[in-house]
Amino acid sequence: MSESQGRHELKHYINYADVLQLRSRLPFVAGPDKNAKAGNGYRVKSLYFDNYNDKALKEKIDGVNEREKFRLRLYNDDISFIRLEKKSKKNSLCFKHSAIITADECSALLDGDLTVLKQNENPLCQELYAKMHYQQLRAKNIVDYQREAFIYPLGNVRITLDYDIRTSNNVHNFLKPEPIPLPISGVYILEVKYDSYLPEIIRGMVSLSSRRSAAFSKYTATRMITMGG
After folding, report:
1. N or C: which end of the chain has fewer CB within 10 A?
2. Which structural domains are found in the chain, ordered by start?
3. Is the CB of residue 143 less than 8 Å from the CB of residue 48?
4. pLDDT tens-digit profile of 116-169?
């Protein structure tokens, strides 16, 4: 299981004009993410887990100080590289642990075969296996979106622009390349992640007039829509 140190995360609702402004600014100081296709960023598809009582959803809405959620993630519909991830938050710091699983393991898991997690020796797979039993975690919904990402090495800063967000509660579509059907129109999200400090050059570059940090969660927003809330 890959370890992570705690990182700060800032999230802002922005508009398309902001996206254009950031696209014109950021390349002068920050490099593109290695996963990006020429000028178009890359596609992210995540499958989130929650239990019958929507534990992860409610903890996020209630702003619980220490919380976690599990997800599967792939990029550009490439099923040869699938990550199992656990994101947790403690005292305003975000942590992420990850493990690689195969497409066959993923498919079996979506079919309800939890033994593939038990047989995988990675500690994160073992943890999810245990929590799918005693917390009754199950695959809940898919979140799919386009991402443009920029890297600034000092402070280990990562800046992302996310848009064209789509969702579905048909979890068996996770490994399929077809577009996710339900769009969340007009939503653009700026995220800034960094370690111990945010360099002033980046702080100034991502400071947009009248934009405030927002506790936005793609999982929460899309679940509320698919639940009709």
Report:
1. C
2. 8-226 (3.20.100.30)
3. yes
4. 999 999 999 999 999 999 999 999 999 999 999 999 999 999 999 999 999 999
Residue 204 burial (CB < 10 Å; 0-12/13-18/19+)? exposed
What pTM was computed for the model? 0.91
CA angle (215 as vertex; 212, 221 as ends), nearest 5:
120
For residue 13, name the pLDDT band (cuts at 50, 70, 90): confident
Instruction: Enter the tokens of residue 104.
Output: 């066959």
Among 210, 209, 206, which Cα is nearest to 193's?
206
Q: Is the pLDDT of residue 63 over 90?
A: no
User: Is 60 exceeded by the pLDDT of residue 1?
Assistant: no
Q: Give the separation between CA 124 and CA 180, rounded to whole angstroms.
A: 27
